[in-house]
Every structure is written in C-alpha cells, then in structure tokens.
What we know:
Layout: H1 2-37, H2 39-47, H3 49-68, E1 73-77, E2 84-89, E3 98-104, H4 120-128, H5 133-144, E4 150-151, E5 160-161, E6 167-172, E7 175-185, E8 192-193, H6 196-213, E9 219-222, H7 235-250, E10 258-263, H8 273-281
Parallel strand pairs: 2-10, 3-7, 3-9, 9-10
Antiparallel strand pairs: 1-2, 4-5, 6-7, 7-8
Helix pairs in contact: 1-2, 1-3, 6-7
Amino acid sequence: xxxxxxxxxxxxWQEGVAFGLAxxxxxxxxxxxxxxxxxxxxxxxxxxxTPYLGFAIFCALVGFLWxxxxxxxxxxxxxxxxxxxxxxxxxxxxxxxxWLIGVNEFFDSRIGDVVAKGSIHGQVICDYFGGDEAKxxxxxxxxxxxxxxxxxxxxxxxxTRYEIGTTAVLDRGDKHIYLVALSRTDxxxxxxxxxxxxLWTALSAALCKVHERGxxxxxxxxxxxxxxxxxxxxxxxxxxxxxxxxxxxxxxAQLPNSVSILLHEDCFSVLDLTEIRRDWSTx
Length: 283
C-alpha cells in the first residue's frame, strides 16, 4: 500500500491536490447551504468547529490518496467485444486459466545451458513438469507434429527450428498451455532475442490458436517480450503493444471473456496501469 501511495504521489500529486481541494469545496458548499437553511446546524457548527474542521481535512486527505493511489490491478472491456482485459501484478502459475507463454523457436527443454531456470519457459519445465525434460518433450513433440521445421546443426539443445508464431498446445488437466515461438536463438551462444514484428506475429498466431482450441476458457499470459529474450522497448511501451495486439485480434475473432496479463513485481515502478486503462476506457 505504501509503495502504491509513494509512486502515485510522485506521478499524480497535482491531480491529488486538485481532487482534495475539490472535496473541501464540496464540503464547504454543502455546509453553506445547510447553515443557510437551518439555524440548528449553524449553532451546532459554532460549538463543534474543531471536530468539523478535522473531518473536512480528513475527507480532503482521503480524496488526495484516492486520486494518487497507484493500483496493482486495472481492467477494462475491449470495445465492441465481450472480452474484459485485466492487467495485474501476480504469479501467472496461480491463475486458474489457460496459459500463453513465449519460448524460443526450438522449443528447447534443457534447463541451464539453453533455457534459463528463472524464465517463464524454464518455470513451466521446472514447476509443472517437475524439471523432467523427457516428460516435457512427451507433450511438446506430438504438439509440434502438424508443423514443418528446419533442421539446424547445434551442439546443445533441440535441432529443429520452427517459424515464429508456431504454437504448441499442451494439456494441463482441463486447461491448456500455449507455447508460442517468440524468439530466435543464436546457436553459438544460445542467446535468444526477439523484435517488435516478431512479437506481433507470435501473439497474433497464438491468439488464433486460443480462438481455435480455447473453448472460452479464461486466458492468462505474462508481459511477453520482457523476459530474457527481451525486446528493446521500455516496459510501458511494451505493455501498450501487447494490449494493442490483443485488442486488435479481439476485434476480428472472438477471444475468451476474460484475458489477463500478469506483470512482474520488478515492473511496478516503471508501469503506469492507470494511464493505459484511461486510454482504452475512453475508446
């Protein structure tokens, strides 16, 4: 809470002051009307001026805090659709929803040398598949059979490269995990990178697969492109781009009624969710 107040005050203190003064003005106006129409109220205020002043200041302070508070969650309806998009800080893997996750174009499974354990890709293998690479491959390999890949010589990792946007759908009980090829890998260093066009292509293709296979299940995804295979964009612009891609697709094909973007706590000081909600809520 204090973190939200400090950050909000640094960003919107002028709005907070204006709203706090507006609250004071409203209280003053109501008081003037009341005292003009009731001698009893006028007499009561003469006897209780100090508590009344304290109450007015308290209300103004509450108004100030309400106006500046930096939310940890915002939501808005995508115009002309039935989809509600939520942006919030939290753990993707605690979401009771289908998960959409970006991986490299090899759909690698080796933790450490190729797939960072701390990445979302790595966490899927470690947390959901118990770190068992073979178990991960028993689902990924059949899911990739409909797609044609290209064999690339590598000393470590998988050797079949798939096009950006290729999406493997894994079963997770009655839910799905959508793994979409988002980044390209340097086979000599195993360093993965992506770009804005590749992000748009990958997200559009993955959402198409969600439309085909999702059956209306809620969908959750991280801030794609902000991980180890990062795109050279500040998080605020990257989030705008991901939101725009989702909104753009939702206007051409039906998405689930609930879509959530889960944000990492490290982004809290550099993302302004209020601004993004304001932009889309007025459209």
